[in-house]
Amino acid sequence: MAETVIKVEDLRKWFPVRLGLFRTLISGEKLFVKAVDGISFEVKEGEILGLVGESGSGKTTTGRLVLRLIEPTSGKIFYRGREITKLSPKELLPLRSKMQIIFQDPYESLNPRMLVGDIIAEPLRVQKLVESESDVREKVFEILEKVDLVPPEEFFYRYPHELSGGQRQRVATARAFVLNPDFVVADEPVSMLDVSIRASVLNLMLKLVRERKASFLYITHDLALAKHICDNIVVMYLGKVMEKSDAERLIKEPLHPYTKALMQAVPVPDPEARRIEVVIKGEIPSPINPPSGCRFHTRCPSYMGNICKTKEPPLIEVESGRFVACHLYGEGKS
Amino acid sequence: MQTQTKSDAENQPILNVDDLTVYYKILRGYVKAVEGAHFKLGKGESLGLAGESGCGKTTVALSIMRLLPPNGKIVKGKILFKGTNIVDLQENQVKRDLRWKRISIVFQGAMNALNPVYTMAQQITEAIRLHEPHVSKEEALERAKKLFELVGIDPSRINNYPHEFSGGMRQRAMIAMALSCNPELLIADEPGTALDVIVQAQVLKLLVELKEKLNLSMILITHDLSIISETCDSAVIMYAGKVVESGSVYHIFKEPLHPYTQGLIAAFPDIYAPKTEIKSIGGQPPDLLNPPSGCRFHPRCQYAMEMCRKLDPAFVEVAKGHFVACHLVGGS
Q1: Which of A100, A282, B1, B95 could make an SS bond with A176 (beta carbons 3.0 to 4.6 A apart)?
Q2: How far apart are the first and last CA of chain B?
Q3: Do the Cβ atoms of B264 and B79 come closer than 8 Å?
Q4: Which domain holds residue B94?
């Protein structure tokens, strides 16, 4: 059994909503955006876990919470069995070399005033993993070659604005992998790239992940892509986990009505299989006042009445390794 | 049914783009945005225009609408809309007879194309009364309400401001506005991008329904091939300003001939296919200031031969209605 690298327990992040001074003084009300509201999952060594959901489902917030880039409101995060939720920045520093992130937009995640070489060398310098400048060059050249930015001596001295989107995302990948992390979060890393470039950048990341036996948390809204690259998938909706399963079974036989709806909305590149069919109406509700009970009940095609409206379904294991949070599969199931 | 509409369409295409060539003038020279584009669209048909960013698909749309920016110029070719060459029309003729009334467009990022300081009612009635001055304010408002109903928004919300709508509803409102003067041809530029998967599917479904209901002809511009396969009758694949392949969706998806089309299709994961590695096309799209010689795809093509570097392949018909520009197919 592979070791668990990251474990998250009942994690919450509520962002306070700024109200006018007057309203706060008079009514004393406090509003929160419940971006992530009690989720649990774990990532094993070498596992590729997909976090899937619409925008506003809390997947990006989750990715940042796991790395302690933002502070959780409550809940626990473990890295290889050690709780890291309460560690100070100083205590966290050595762990940072083990946990890295690749952001969505390579046009914003690279400092335009730094050379590509310095961008990639910065984590090495911060972690004091290099002794001399020649050491830096050696390590950076090596990773530049790995991400196919060749010849490295040329790319080392370029600025981000001289690179295309795909090349920038390769720089971001190099920066994440230069420290040999064993856990990498990638937040929609290819959604800003051109179609023909996407696959090559994605395949590069997967190659590095597999080479190093790293664990990979892949955040995406694209269920089709997740199916092809992930081992397991967690489906989120309004800050909650709706379904959790291995990718194969999840796609073959989705259990949660939300997962089913997501699947039906994915266009298929086969003109004979046309079936544009949308079973659910409306858009994702506001996370400030999420619906009571099951958060999906307002849009659910299998809505069963009172129970869905009042009682929140727990995430239960219906088959080995398959979890779903829906009353259809609770005690009341047939 | 299918064959019936097909043969009708062939008799009289509503739109015929012939050898369209558009350049943008910039300081460093001319960007050859579109070069020798050919395609036809039959009445009541929908056509998908696909390609990566920078391949010229939006430029084609802007040329049809005669909305090119001042530095953009149609240097060659014809755009025949029901037999009239749009390229030759004077600006005031385009304004009076064509834009909105005959052809209208739903822009990319339509969610931001609405004016935030006017209500939806004001914006839609303005569009109607500008193009049809004889319509009274009351009639225009009535029509705007009907349009809202048509696109699935409660007509009572006609007096709302754009910020009061969600992304999907704004996109629907934009579609309503585009339909306000009963056009025959609707161009939708990336209508689903920036929307969530489910909302995107809702919008696409709406477009397909409207097309049937109003007997519209439609051009759908997208980088997502699977959207075209779901919603269109035919497809045109562009690469670096050139049309590389066109045909019915069956031709394009079942028997793609151009290596670029094959690469694009392989780059899209099919959710129902067995787990595979996603294939990529090596290299980068070229700079259109200095496009590659010969076939523009040759630097990235795995089958590139000597002649591909020198000779621009002709656009030949390999099967009825299926055109390809590649030295591997046709000719030699």
Answers
A1: A100
A2: 37
A3: no
A4: 2-102+183-324
Rounded to 5, what percent of chain B is helix, strand, coil? 40, 25, 35
Q: What ipTM was assigned to the predicted interfaces of this complex? A: 0.83
For chain A, the domains span: 4-98+179-329
Residue B300 lies in a domain: yes
What residue in B sits closest to A196 (Cα-Cα)?
B281
CATH number at residue B90: 3.40.50.300
Judging contacts by C-beta atoms under 8 Å, the chain B residues touching residue A300 are: none
A29 Cα distance to chain centroid? 32
Q: How far is CA A334 from the centre of its chain?
A: 35
pTM of the predicted model as reported, rounded to 2 decimal places = 0.87
Task: Please give, rounded to a whole number of angstroms, the shortest distance from the CA of B74 to a CA of chain A.
Answer: 26
Tell me if B168 and A283 make a contact (CB, 8 A cut-off). yes
Q: Cβ contacts (< 8 Å) between A265 and chain B: which residues?
A: 197-198, 200-201
Examine residue B211 and state whether it is found in any structural domain, yes or no. yes
Tens of pLDDT along B44-86?
999 999 988 889 999 999 999 999 999 999 999 999 999 999 9
pLDDT per residue as tens digits for the range B208-259: 999 999 999 999 999 889 899 989 999 999 999 999 999 999 999 999 999 9
The number of distinct structural domains making up chain B is: 1
Residues constituting chain A: 334
